[in-house]
Structures are given as structure tokens and as C-alpha cells.
Amino acid sequence: MENTMKKVTLLTLMALTSLTAAAKPQTVTLDVPTMNCVTCPFTVKKSLQNVAGVSEADVTFETKVAIVTFDDEKTTVKALIDATTNAGYPSTIKQ
């Protein structure tokens, strides 16, 4: 019985470890060229933060970019672009 419990515990730990390892945060940089005033980044940042899976959004007026860290199991780059676009600030992936 004790040996069986050890195997179950080991298998459970292995499963949890593989789940944790699979969920890696991704970072994307978006060009947001239509930001034309210093308050625009607040709206863009809020729109990105409202997307499930976004852990960080750094939006800069001077460079007109948004650097977004997100969980790719919860959202996509398309969803991020849609969020900024729906807020009135179309964006594209910075090349």
C-alpha cells in the first residue's frame, strides 16, 4: 500500500510539473501608431489589461509601442490586437 501511495504521489508531482512547465509567459511588442497624445497610452494599457491572460502591459507614447506579457494558453496575439483596435488604437506586431 505504501509503495502504491508513493507511485501516485510521484505521478501527481510529474503531472503538475509538466503543466507548470507548459504555461510559459509570452511577450509581444505591438506598434500602436495612432497614439497622438500623452493620455492615449492609458486607454491602450487598460484595454490590454482587460484581456484574460495578460500579466503585464507597458505602453509608451514616445515610441508608440506596447510591450505585452501574456499566457498563451489564455489569450492570443490576435486578441491583444483586437483589444487595442476596439479601444480606438489599431495595432500590429512590431517587426
UniProtKB/TrEMBL annotation:
- Chief subcellular location equals periplasm
Domain HMA, first and last residues per copy:
26-92
Q: Where is the signal peptide?
A: 1-23
Instruction: Write out the transmembrane intervals.
Output: none
Report if keyword Signal is assigned. Answer: yes
Any GO molecular function: mercury ion binding
Give a yes or no for keyword Kinase in this entry: no
Where is it localised?
Answer: Periplasm
Q: Which InterPro entries match?
A: Heavy-metal-associated_CS, HMA_dom, HMA_dom_sf, MerP, MerP/CopZ
* Keywords, sorted A to Z: Mercuric resistance, Mercury, Metal-binding, Periplasm, Signal
What GO cellular component entries does it have?
A: periplasmic space
Per the entry, what this protein does is:
Involved in mercury resistance. Acts as a mercury scavenger that specifically binds to a mercuric ion in the periplasm and probably passes it to the cytoplasmic mercuric reductase MerA via the mercuric transport protein MerT.
Annotated family: Belongs to the MerP family.
Q: How does it assemble?
A: Monomer.
Indicate what this protein is called per its UniProt record: Periplasmic mercury ion-binding protein
